[in-house]
Structures are given as structure tokens and as C-alpha cells.
């Protein structure tokens, strides 16, 4: 059953081999009417949510030119489904989520706007992942608390990361024996004390910054996997390898990756997790897994289809979009018959 689908991406000079080219191409290949919209052009015109967009007339090729968005300020509401695959500039974040929420009141989303806002972060993993499948985790902007936490157990290591960052930026491993521990935790929480002394709070205002601190899981170096869940189906992903001189396994910072293989226990767990996530309006997500622990969830533009293709030569995108649409129909979010 063909649908009319709007895929919101960030306009770029050239398409890369990522979701911005792979997912619209797969939807088009499956026979749907697909439009690409620039998420940074969202607005409201006389109570109608609009964006600049164009209709897809062929599959995209990595390295190809970004298409001209031929329809300016066109309605974003006249669709059966919206798939959000991009964020926006930090200065526009509040308006961005308010506009997405308004649009989502009128059109179903693959991942609900509320889920994109509240659950696509390190702070709220406990809302959707069972406690027994989470490493010990803290979110705080209190340097003294976090420094005391790390200091309290000399045999334990911790990972500190921005609550809303990604792609390996500002991620550090700290422990009580690390001479950089205090400096790294101070930097992660905004260097508030130093900045207040240097400039004065009256001048710079609030300097504290939130950070997530998560217990370091030793088996993460040998068993970290990115798994793409489409509904409750683990459709693709890749095995991640840590370099000897880096604790990060992000492919974006040069880590090696290979074909994904799941154990029976991992597959059962992921299918259960997928059902929990769908209850929260999440139907397409990248799960960073070091079984039995979930390290992160990524739903804005999760890499997986692209790295599987690079590792194996296989294109799993049609399977992924079919699974997403099937799950949305089963959940009653997408009609069986196109309107």
C-alpha cells in the first residue's frame, strides 16, 4: 500500500551514504510517494506547518548533488507520515521541537516529536530501558558530587559524556587514579568555579553544565554493537571495535566496524526492548548494546544501514522501511488503506 511520506533532513552540499540518501531512496523504491523537506525551513503560515520541499523522482546516489527544493513554504501536513532524520542548530532547538510537536499533532511521525525531545538523550534512558540493563548512571552539573563519586571507589572507572552530544564528542573515561580526573570532570560540568573566579557570575551568568556519568563496562571493548531496531525487529547494524589508543568506538572517529551478528539472547532482548520503545512512540532507533547493557539510544539519524553496507556490500534499507511501516500499521498509527 503506497503512502505519501515527508522525510525531513538537513540540506547539504552533497548527499553522503547515510540515512538522508538511503531512507528516501528505499521508500521510493518500495513504491511510496516520497518528498524531502529541509528541517531548517519549518515554519507556520496561517496555522499550517510548512517547509521547503521537493518530490523524489529517482533514487539518490552518495556524492550526488542535493536536489533543488522546488516547493517553497509548502504544506508539511498533507502527508500520511513524517520521518525526521535531522536536528537543527542549538540556537533554534526550542522552536524546532515546538514546530515538530505541532506538526506531529496533525501527521503521524516514525518517532514521535515528544520522544525525539525527551528520549533522544542520555538523561532519560531509565524511562525506556529496564534498570537491570543499564550501567550505573548519574546526570548532574555538580562537580563536587561527581568528583566524590569517582573518588569513592578506586577500582571503578566511569565514562563522562555530554547529555545531548553525539559522534564521540567530549567523551572521556575517568577513574580515581587518573591525574586528569578532576580537570576532566570540571570541564564536563562547565568549569563553573574557575569561570566565576575569572569573570564573575554577574557577568557570565550560569556556567554549570550537565553531564552524564556512566559506569565503564569492561566488555564494551570486545562486544559493543550498534543495532538498528525497526519496530521490534533488529534489521541491521554493525560490530564496533575500539582502537588500542582510544576508548571510543564511534565509526565517525575512525573506529573499525564489521558485520553484525547477534546471539539468541541478544535478539530476544532487543525484540522486547523494541516493544517497550514503540509504547513510547519510537519506531526506528539505533541501540548501542554491550549485552546485557544498553549504553545509548540514537533516533535522530542513527548510523547502521550505511555501515552495514560498507562492511558487507548488502543493502538492508528496503527491509528496514518495510518493518517500520508494518509496525506503524500494527500500532494503528498508519492506516491500512492510504487516505
TrEMBL record:
What positions does the domain ATP-grasp occupy? 123-325
Going by the UniProt record, its keywords in alphabetical order are: ATP-binding, Nucleotide-binding
User: Which SUPFAM superfamilies does the protein's record reference?
Assistant: Glutathione synthetase ATP-binding domain-like
InterPro entries under this entry? ATP-grasp, ATP_grasp_subdomain_1, GSHS_ATP-bd
Q: Respond yes or no to whether keyword Nucleotide-binding is given for this record.
A: yes
Query: Where does the source fall among the domains of life?
Result: Bacteria
A Pfam cross-reference name: GSH-S_ATP
The protein depicted here goes by the name Glutathione synthase
Taxonomic lineage per UniProt? Bacteria, Bacillati, Actinomycetota, Actinomycetes, Kitasatosporales
Amino acid at each position: 500500500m503506497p503512502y505519501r511520506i515527508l522525510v525531513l533532513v538537513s540540506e547539504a552540499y552533497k548527499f553522503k551514504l547515510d540515512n538522508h540518501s538511503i531512507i528516501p531512496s528505499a521508500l521510493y523504491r518500495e513504491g511510496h510517494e516520497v518528498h524531502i523537506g529541509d528541517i531548517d525551513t519549518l515554519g507556520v503560515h496561517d496555522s499550517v506547518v510548512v517547509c521547503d520541499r521537493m518530490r523524489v523522482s529517482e533514487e539518490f546516489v552518495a556524492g550526488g548533488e542535493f536536489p533543488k527544493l522546488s516547493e517553497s513554504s509548502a504544506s508539511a501536513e498533507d502527508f500520511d507520515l513524517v520521518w525526521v532524520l535531522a536536528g537543527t542548530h542549538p540556537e533554534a532547538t526550542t522552536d524546532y521541537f515546538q514546530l515538530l510537536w505541532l506538526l506531529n499533532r496533525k501527521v503521524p511521525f516514525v518517532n514521535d516529536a515528544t520522544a525525539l525531545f525527551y528520549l533522544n538523550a542520555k538523561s532519560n534512558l531509565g524511562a525506556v530501558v529496564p534498570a537491570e540493563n543499564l550501567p550505573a548512571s548519574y546526570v548532574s552539573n555538580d562537580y563536587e558530587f561527581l568528583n566524590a563519586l569517582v573518588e569513592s571507589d578506586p577500582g571503578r572507572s566511569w565514562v563522562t559524556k555530554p547529555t545531548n552530544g553525539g559522534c564521540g564528542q567530549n567523551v572521556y573515561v575517568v577513574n580515581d587514579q587518573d591525574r586528569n580526573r578532576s580537570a576532566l570532570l570540571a570541564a564536563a560540568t562547565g568549569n563553573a568555579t574557575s569561570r566565576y573566579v575569572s569573570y564573575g557570575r554577574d557577568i557570565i551568568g550560569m556556567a554549570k553544565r550537565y553531564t552524564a556519568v556512566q559506569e565503564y563496562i569492561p566488555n564494551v571493548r570486545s562486544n559493543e554493537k550498534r543495532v538498528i531496531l525497526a519496530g521490534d525487529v533488529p534489521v541491521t547494524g554493525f560490530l564496533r571495535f575500539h582502537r588500542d589508543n582510544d576508548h571510543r568506538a564511534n565509526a565517525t572517529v575512525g573506529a573499525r566496524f564489521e558485520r553484525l551478528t547477534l546471539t539468541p539472547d541478544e535478539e530476544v532482548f532487543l525484540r522486547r526492548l523494541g516493544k517497550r520503545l514503540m509504547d513510547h512512540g519510537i519506531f526506528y532507533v539505533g541501540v548501542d548494546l554491550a549485552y546485557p547493557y544498553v549504553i545509548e539510544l540514537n533516533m535522530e539519524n542513527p548510523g547502521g544501514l550505511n555501515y552495514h553496507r560498507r562492511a558487507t556490500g548488502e543493502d538492508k534499507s528496503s527491509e528496514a522501511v518495510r518493518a517500520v511501516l508494518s509496525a506503524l500499521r500494527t500500532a494503528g498509527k498508519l492506516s491500512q488503506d492510504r487516505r
